[in-house]
Structures are given as C-alpha cells and as structure tokens.
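Why do we bother with holo predictions? Because pocket geometry can differ from the apo form. Keep that in mind while you read this record for 1-deoxynojirimycin.
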Amino acid sequence: MDRRFVLVGLCATGALAGAGQALAQTSDGKPSGPLEISSPGGILQVRIRSGEGNIQKGIPAYEVRRLGNPVIALSRLGFRFADAPDLAPDMEVVEARARSFDQIWEQPWGEQRLIRNHYNELAVTFAETSGLKRLMRVVFRVYDDGIGFRYEFPEQPNLVNALITEELTEFRFVEDAEAFWIPARHSNRYEYLYNTTPLNEMFMAHTPVTMRTGDGLHISVHEAALVDYASMVLRRSGANTFQADLTPWSDGIRVKARAPFVTPWRTLQIADSAGGLITSYLILNLNEPNALGDVSWVEPGKYVGVWWEMHLGTGTWGSGPKHSATTANVKRYIDFAAEHGFSGVLVEGWNLGWDGDWYRDGGSAFDFVKAYPDFDLPELARYGAERKVRLIGHHETAGNISRYENQLDAALDLMETHGVRAVKTGYVADAGQIQRIDEKGITRHEFHDGQFMARHHLHVVKEAAKRKVSINAHEPIKDTGLRRTYPNWVAREGARGQEYNAWGNPGCPPEHTVILPFTRMLAGPMDYTPGVFDLFNTRRENRDTRVETTLAKELALYVVIYSPIQMACDLPEHYEARPEPFRFIKDVVTDWEETRVLNARIGDYVTIARKARRGDDWFLGSLTDENGRLFDIDLDFLDSGRNYKAQIYRDGPKADWRSDPYDMEIIEGLVNSRSKFALRLAPGGGQAVRFTPATKAEMRRLKRI
Ligand code: NOJ
Ligand code: CA
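The structure, written out:
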C-alpha cells in the first residue's frame, strides 16, 4: 500500500483524462470511434464496441485485455423484458464520460484496515435509435486487479417499470481454463464440494467462479453490491462462453425494478498469482461506503456455543431430556467462555418451535420471542454480563420468511433488551423452497438467491442495525461485499462448512479448505466454525465419518478462513483435554491490520500471514490438501530490526490426517524479518504460528530458529 495517499478522494472528471484514448466526436456531438479505458497502472484495458466478430452492429459489447493480451473477447451486453420489447439491436452511443478516482478508506473491522480504491471509470450511455428510444448506461470501473461494470437505467419516459426476463451479459473467455466451481440451482444451495474441471465442463455455477488459465492467469467472476436484484449465476452458452443467468422469482420474472435503478457490479478479478485474488479488494471497493455511521458497537471476536453437541446428536434443539439450551448448560458454556476469554456464547434451540419435524413443516411453529421453559433468558443475560460474556442469539426460519418478518421487530427488540449484540439467522430449506406469502395470501416458493431474498436479508440487517445487533446468516444469499455499507453484516455461511464433518457422507475433504480461500472467501467472511479437537467424535450413526484434518490444520484455519467472528466449535471438555493447542485459539485474534499471502496454489495449499489490528502480533496459517508439503518462507513481513518469539503449532513427524491427526509439535523460538522459516505440513495438515515481539527474558531463554 502506498502510504503517501491520504484518506481523501482524488477525483477527476472529463473526456477520458489520462484513462485511455481521447474521445472523438461526430458533428452532432456524439462520441465516435473506439471507446476504451485502461486501469491506473495500464494493466487492464476495456474496450466498448459492436459490429465485430459475432456481435452485430447496434448491440453493445465489451472486451477486456491484460497487458495487451485478450482475456474476455467481445461479449454482449443487454436485457430482455417481459412487459416491453427487448432492447432493440440498434443502440448507439450517445454519451461517454470518463473519470478517475483514488481514495484510501478504512474498514471498521476486516482483514485489511486500509484499502486503496483506485480506478478509471468509463460511463457509456446507449440509446435505441428507433422505437421507444430507451436509454441504458454501462459504467466500467477498471482497476489494476480487475474490472467491475454495471448497468444503470436513468429515469426516462419509455422505461418505468422493468420486468427483466433475461440479462444478456456475456463472458466470452478467450481460452479454456481450469475452473473451480459449485453448481447453481441445486437443492443444497451453496453447500457443495467444489468441482475442478475444464471451464467448458461447467454448466451452471454460482459465483465466485475462479479459474486458472494455461498461462497461469487467475480470474474470478463474481458480483458486487447485490442490493435489490437477483443473483447472477453463470450458464454456459457456448465454447468458453457464459451468460449471466439471473435467479428467477417463482413467477419466472428475474428482476422487478423501477427506473431509475442500477444493477449489481459484474466483476472480474484478474491476477498473475492465486494469492493476488485474495488480496484484491475489488468487491469491497465497488460497494457503497458505510451507511450506518458509528459502528463501534459491531464487535469482532471469538465465540463458543451450544451447537456442536446438537450436530453430534448428544444434545437436541427441541425439548426433552437432551435439550441443550437449558439454563444450566448455557451457564456451563458461559463459565467456559469467561475462563478462556471468549466474548460470546451462541445458543441454538432456545426458542419454541423445534419440536416435531421443523424442516418438513417449513418452520411453521417457530416463535422468535418465546423461550423454552427451561431456558431463562434474563437470568442468562445477567449471568453473562457479570462475566463479560454476551449471548449470541439464533433465529432459524426454515425459510419461512413471512413468519419471521412478522415477528422481526419483537424478536430483535428482545435481543437488544438482553444485551445480545449478534444474531445468527438460518434459512434451512432446499433451494427454491423459501416461503413467501404474496399479495393474494398465496404461498409462493422462492430461491435463496433471488431478488426476494436479497431484499429480505437487507431488511433484517437494517432492522438489526437499529438495535446495534450484528447478523451472521446461514443458508444465506451469497456475499457481494455489502459489509462495507452495512458493517453489522459480519459473516455468513454460504458454503460447505465444518458441520458437514459431523454429518459426513462426505464431510469436507482436505482439499476443500484450500479451494475456499480462492472462491467463496473472495465474496467475504465465512462462519466456517473451525476448531474441532476431537476429530473422531462425529455422529454416532456415521461411524466412518470424521474430521478430515490434522489438529494443527484446525488451528491454521483460524488465520486462513477469514471472519471477524470465529467460533471455537467443539465441546468445552474437548478443549480442556488439550490445553496446549487450545492456547492458539485463545491467542489468535479476528480483526486485522494487514493480510499477506505468502504462497498459494488453488486446491493444493495456501499460507497467509495477518497482522493483528491492535498490538504487534502477527499470525500465520498454512493449509495443505491431502498431500504433505515442505516450504521455506521468508518472514520479511515482520518489522525489521525486531526480534519475535514464534510459537509454532505444527504437524509432528508421524502426523497424517488419516492415521495420526493428533501428532503435533508445539515449539518456541526466536525469529526476525530475515529468518528463513520452514513449514512442514502433513497430508491433510497445516501449521499455525503466533509471532510476538520478544521480551528480554525470552531473548535469553529461546533459541534462534
Ligand atoms: C444449519 C446451520 O448451518 C447450522 O449452523 C445450524 O445449527 C442449523 N442449521 C440449525 O439452525
Ligand atoms: Ca448450513
């Protein structure tokens, strides 16, 4: 990061000032000739043209080059509507404006405190030359690490209500690539293991979709600022070619809008290295700044919870002898949290409605205000407050949106009253089974990632913000960086997480967590819930199931899989049985000043170092897939001229996730920024390290590594 820049926006508006070729104009003042714009460092170029290749004249299209080489060949833009003719294939450019922007902004919490938002922008307005003469603007923001573009429909007489049936945006990649993707519109939402296939074998995929070309270019397609629109899924429409496929409403319409409106940004992150995708903050940059003002009440932190025992089957959400959310059991968790420095205790199964088959019954009995009689909320809030531990609320909706929205105010008021600062929401229902009651009182079934749910989630997040409550949504709509605008949207699930290791068939194989950082994690923080210490303790009925990592890898996940809220998901007794490795979970922080990727290959390994936002500590996490690996890494991220104590939690010589996942070495030594540091990762293994400035006593006591 260039520290010379201050927290001030530097904007320039004009005819492509310093941002590409100057615009030529025809005698009637309309732009003519090629329209193009380059990124500030000249790395990426976008050109707008039509009437070439497959693209008929009058159809807007764009292409992307990187350092002169084509990445996206000429690709179509446009829309089809239900209630109006399709945008005619006779559009012409009536206006083109360019501007540059350069600003450093600060995240209230995050993986990187200061982020530079530096782009050149080209906004091109197209108009139909006949018929309705409708206007459509496409705005391109071109960064050195990627591009974003969105459509804007200004207020206009012949386009008022828009019922979008198809967005025609295309991504025509110039060559096949190796793609990492999960299928879209399948019942299990985003909770699939990733496919690694040629790009051309990807049919329908959720974004982020990430790919590596033969030349080693890394490209990820996603979107930013999905506010009041449907999610974009990529559908294969030809060789190396994908079209935006917007998730439909139950009536088949994709998006219901009223001009003026804007679409989300369609994004392409493009980097030479896999790690370059992780440290690209393009998605956040394309979102609007914080709309909530003072958000000092949003609290990053670590939590434990009445959770894993229910997934193991030793406890239940519903009432009965195994009910987990009892006053006594929650007090046990609060005591444990207080003793070990956790700030929150998640309590699931505290409210009425879990008895019977809540999933099959579509959550029709859930009450978000009434607790089970054996759960004393006021007493537990008091007990927690005395010990500086907050309860974390839980609202499982089973996708019954009207039921939840009808109770939302009261439900969130209750949380506020009892000092609850975070609520985990849940939408357990198959894809396409979200319940919406329409204007006529008829129940309709929607997707988790359609426009209806985009609206619902933001409604919940805004209502929660009024009560200083943060939201962690499970079975959510995908993340598109809205945490920048609403910093109380702290995390979500939206991928296959640790819970699958309890259920099995299959769980999360070793490769999964070395694909997530380059796919799902590019969207935003994930509540993966790391930290299982009893790796064989899974559901009794699935005895062949287990957590497919070494113990050291469970620790390393805290650094690699970023979230401002991190759970230590296992049972207190399993941590108490292994106090030494548990120390790392107690020490690791969840809010960062800076993030560096030290090495990475998608699907194989990743090593990340992050500096704590407060204090001088650095933490390192390294993960591998099913293969053991040795690496030498430089510690040049450490302050030069300073000695650090390294507390190393690494796989032992016999460690292997299959045969000996617990073999671990915990050692301490002295290092500095010039040290060469050896990482040894077992098959399915990992390594976690804490670096702390060494005291004088430690300088004397510890050996140099
Ligand atoms: C699925 C969530 O991912 C999990 O964390 C939660 O415990 C259950 N739903 C019940 O709400
Ligand atoms: Ca889930």
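DSSP finds 13 helices and 41 strands in the chain.
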